[in-house]
Amino acid sequence: MSGLKIFVDLVSQPSRAVALLLEVNNIPYNKVVVNLGKGEHLSHSELKAVNPNTKVPALQEGKFCLYESGAILRYICSSRQLPDHWYPKDLERRALVDQYLDWHHSTIRIGCAHWFFAQHIARQPPTHHVIVDSKATLLKAFSILNDYTLQDNKFLTGEMISIADIQAICELTQHWMVGRNVYSGYPNIEKWVAACIKELQPQFDQVHGIIYKIKSRGLFGTDTNPEPLKSKL
Amino acid sequence: MSGLKIFVDLVSQPSRAVALLLEVNNIPYNKVVVNLGKGEHLSHSELKAVNPNTKVPALQEGKFCLYESGAILRYICSSRQLPDHWYPKDLERRALVDQYLDWHHSTIRIGCAHWFFAQHIARQPPTHHVIVDSKATLLKAFSILNDYTLQDNKFLTGEMISIADIQAICELTQHWMVGRNVYSGYPNIEKWVAACIKELQPQFDQVHGIIYKIKSRGLFGTDTNPEPLKSKL
């Protein structure tokens, strides 16, 4: 049994990112599934001891506890000495991975997650302003990704995949649950998504199994009008 | 002249964080002031070439360009080999600094910055929901900081100050401009704020000069009812 314990629910975008890095690199770990849909995180005493925010993913290794997916991804790369491209030792290349991981929070993460939650999960209005704000955030963010970040790069920080790509792709795939490609109409982003999926198979499909299942069963409904984001505003 | 160029406006919280780390460590740099109040960032071609998001802070060193304050803080520590406590080499201690820097975005940053912008800068309604959401976010975040993160620690990740503390304190001080201590009523946070200020003087006051000036002139108004956040909801 591995001494590395990871609390996840693969319906959670950052949980998928951490699981995907571990799976792609064949790192053994003890997976503790916390079912968010059933509200298990709210009363999970073991999770709360590791992460007082009671969110997944969270990591425990011996007495060491860690939360926040970006920090966990970095820690896994460094503590397991993963191939350099995941989180380069070169200061400038590493800084570009850090730059994306920081930028992600206020752009792709907040845009995709708040929109999805407001439209498909939240039971109480008002949610309209959240959806409007989220789409505006994503429009700006996708322009940066499409026109600058990915203009000359195969991946977000260069020619090799890194934890920045894993963090980003696992957020965008959330909307697949309702049949929506939020990045539709942005050619460089679409090309990059395809490159990520190719690079991360077969583990990508394994980690996204729950997403495919939710979509096929229509558990969160289906976007009946999946026009490009640009044309919706 | 230093080869390190930093684009800042000290009215911007993350700009102050980067400037403070540089000043406290006596690192020479070429400061390019971008006046956000005058909208200079919107048409600043030099800034846009460094950061297509046209936000400050941004860093340029030779051909290398970097944005996002968290990434810049890490890069400065590593490239200047600053004293270890700022961004420890030990993997677990470093991971805890990364954990805070990631957590910061969706908690202290979004809570403080969106609230301040909506209440004191935005010219167009509706802003009420933003203020309500921001206060709710801060209430949760302050409980975590006060009751867990700072319960047994002098600073956010232990007994020594790090870039996590600099990032956090520079966000909280934004509300000083209107005479509001957002963390009022949280004893462990109040103690930590005092410890940070003591540790970072005299550079703390230098970097915050513009904040003190704005407050004394009442440029953004004054909070006439600065009750603790807890009692306002």
From TrEMBL, chains A, B:
GO molecular function: glutathione transferase activity
Source taxon at top rank: Eukaryota
Domain GST N-terminal: 2-84
Keywords, sorted A to Z: Cytoplasm
Listed GO CC annotations: cytoplasm
GO biological process: glutathione metabolic process
Gene3D superfamilies, alphabetized: 1.20.1050.10, Glutaredoxin
Subcellular location: Cytoplasm
Pfam families in alphabetical order: GST_C, GST_N
Domain GST C-terminal: 90-220
Family the UniProt entry places it in: Belongs to the GST superfamily.
Alphabetical list of PANTHER family matching this protein: GH16740P-RELATED, PTHR43917
Protein name: Glutathione S-transferase theta-2B-like
Native organism: Oopsacas minuta
